[in-house]
Amino acid sequence: MTKFKNICGALEKILLIIIGIFAGIMIIITTVEVVRRYIFSASFQWAEELSRYLMVGVAFLGGSIGYRKKNLIPLDLVTGKLPPKVQLILELVMEIISAAILALLFYLSMNSVLSPVVYKQKSIGFPISMAIPFSAMPIGFGCMLIFAFEHFMDMVKKFKEVK
Fold first, then answer.
1. Whole-model pTM?
2. Can you tell me the distance from the alpha carbon of 113 to that of 120, in angstroms, rounded to the nearest whole number?
3. For the segment 94-118, what is each residue's pLDDT rounded down to a tens digit?
4. Is the separation of the CB atoms in 113 and 141 below 8 Å?
5. Residue 5 half-sphere exposure, CB side, CA atoms within 13 Å?
6. CA distances from 98 to 17, 67, 80 (A)
7. Which of the chain's ends, N or C, has fewer CB atoms near its CB within 10 Å?
8. d(Cα 40, Cα 74) in Å, to the nearest integer?
9. Do the Cβ atoms of 4 and 153 come closer than 8 Å?
10. How remote is the C-alpha of 156 from its chain's centroid?
11. Are 118 and 130 in contact (CB under 8 A)?
12. Do 62 and 52 contact (CB within 8 A), yes or no?
């Protein structure tokens, strides 16, 4: 269990580094574009597209970190008034449902990225396959699925401790 937690912690650190790089590049490109447009009346054709791809990457990767830290919006208005063991059972059921939905989204996003329509299509501003920016979806959902397993293991441990 501790090894898996360490792996999840390392994965989170890697995601944070990638998000920081993506956000930094986005800020630099956007700033340069504002200067180029308003001062020099010129712009790069690819800048807006790259910023959009980076924003999508930040959203999916950041969403997985939010999921791990349980910073997503919980609906605990009713469950907060229940006994601790019942709360834990409901959390466990919700985590299983969430994991099932995440597994489905991971599967569907992988199918999307690997479909010929996506991987054969080239980006307008770059000579890259659209599978590269689309890959943020399965990576984000895959990380969320790993973190869902971590939550599940934590809840099973808590369930054994609660009486």
1. 0.88
2. 10
3. 899 999 999 999 999 999 999 999 9
4. no
5. 7
6. 26, 10, 19
7. C
8. 48
9. yes
10. 24
11. yes
12. no
